[in-house]
Amino acid sequence: MKKVLVTGSNRGIGLEIALAFGRAGYQVFATMRTPSKATTLSETIKAEELPISMHKMNVNSDISVKAIMDEILLEDGPIDILVNNAGIGLNGSIEEMPLSEFKGVFETNVFGAVRCIKAVIPAMREQKSGCIINITSVSGRLTSSPLGCYSASKFALEAISEALAQEVKPFNIRVGIVEPGIIDTDMAHEIRGASSSIYPTSKRMADLFHASLKNPTSAALVAEKILEFAESDSWYLRHPVGPDALPYIQWRQSMTDEEWINRHSLPEEEWYNSIERDFGMDARR
């Protein structure tokens, strides 16, 4: 039975990933900061008798990551598949976001993933097999205010993943980047909330998320893509997920940098008209 470790498994995409692998017959180590809050996961494991164990692990802590990884290695052997899902989705303008929160996003979204990667690679390299899947976002390919900090962290993880893929391929270790669009998660619902920012882009992004979530895309779709990649022999690096993911990426690629900046700096009515024209979505509310 192959072994999978999933970070940030208490809710949303992470929860669905853990369940998808468990239902497919993998031995799953579902990690999270506070297992006592993961009631849905715990109840589902019991109800379906899934091969999933829950572990307290803080990806921001060297000590915490090492302790759990060492414990699993000693008792169960090397991890075959690592899914770096744990992340923070704070949004806010560059001016208004406190520097401490800016650092916190990078600590989890970037360094947390790196800690876990460094913990599993030695055994994968020794056994000459393994799979590392890093969940970034469409925001790892394009950036829009007020998601500058979040995007920066996901851009960083994409760069690390691309370099890592080059390093470990000779050891038969596959690396995949999964890039969800707007998914029905707590983070997406938080972004769609009303904004008190002095910058109009914050309200516009909230309205865009609000409109998109009227026809929500389930987190289970992301889990299905991750399981599909893990079970394949594909070396394809990037995997956009969701009905809006690739269209958003292509939308950005169709413009120069200056056109992209100008598009998001349009007067209010022109901006809403552009979204309606390009995506058939009325984001006004």
From TrEMBL:
It comes from the Bacteria. The keyword Acetylation does not apply. Pfam families: adh_short (PF00106). Keywords: Oxidoreductase. The keyword Cytoplasm does not apply. Gene3D superfamilies: NAD(P)-binding Rossmann-like Domain. InterPro entries: NAD(P)-bd_dom_sf, Sc_DH/Rdtase_CS, SDR_fam, SDR_oxidoreductase. Belongs to the short-chain dehydrogenases/reductases (SDR) family. This is NAD(P)-dependent dehydrogenase, short-chain alcohol dehydrogenase family.
